[in-house]
Amino acid sequence: MSACGEENPAGPSSAPTAATGTLAPSDPAGRPDLDAAEVVAGDIDVPWGLAFLPDGAALVAERDSGRILRVATGRAPEQVYQVPGVTARGEGGLLGLAVAPDFAESRYVYAYFTAETDNRIVRFRLDGQPEVLLAGIAEAGNHNGGRIAFGPDGMLYAGTGDAGRSERSPDPASPNGKILRLTPEGRPAPGNPTPGSPVYSLGHRNVQGLAWDRAGRLFAAEFGQNRVDEINLIEPGRDYGWPEVEGTGGADRGFTDPLLTWTTAEASPSGIAITGDTLYVAALRGRRLWTVPLEDGRLGTPRAEMRDRYGRLRTVEVAPDGALWLTTSNTDGRGDPEGGDDRVLRFPAR
Q: Which pLDDT band holds residue 21 (cuts at 50, 70, 90)?
């Protein structure tokens, strides 16, 4: 049984609801207070991608409905877009979101989603039709990857999965089981290991977390199979070992070992975020938030926070005001939904 922390979609939830009351101020230079949770929104249908707009509001993707909600503190979530062509089955659907670094001028939003025959990356303005930037990423009932994010170099990075066929991961001709690096227009980015190819790194099983530290180093979270999940430091052209290696032990064969591993029961990591000197890891099966000290590209001893407090955790992001935002994933078919699930939580920085 694969330990990917996913399952079939659940039925739709009720209409999204807003938090009540005034949310606490947040200090961008501070550290998120993990004991000061605030519910920004509730009753969301399998929230997956989350990306912030320049005004501090967030766009939240509903995996199964294909809707994008605008979520802001003190206001009811409102639907601002419906991505056409989303096919939600198994782990597929509307997955990652990213906002263009020049959104104030271009107004572009990017999405990774499962269509009828493939996974694809599109961009669109909230008042327009999507433009397909990259298609042909194999889709399956599981291992679709789906996280996208703009790096400090202005390029768009995407984590993909092997779509259930591990031989795709080391194959440089396949976009599956990779981290891809694209220009904002969807072309292979200049400086990629192989000119004309979008592949930045390979040998991945299922990447759903991407984050950069202050020095511009890229870290990625990866679902293991039966033994261990991973946090990897991503370097261009490196092979991270899947399917030959799960976890450590591949360095003597030319593979790159992870910096950190957990058992699959403790983690099944999806989103990750970095603020200050801490890496935050949202765990699905592990039902906790891992915090990991980060120094000069090295990771310290992880600490489990919020164990079983909010259920399955999907996405973690840092807001412009320094607050940490976290989404639950209890309505995805593997959780135990409670009243108000799924929720978007906020932890102000002090």
A: low
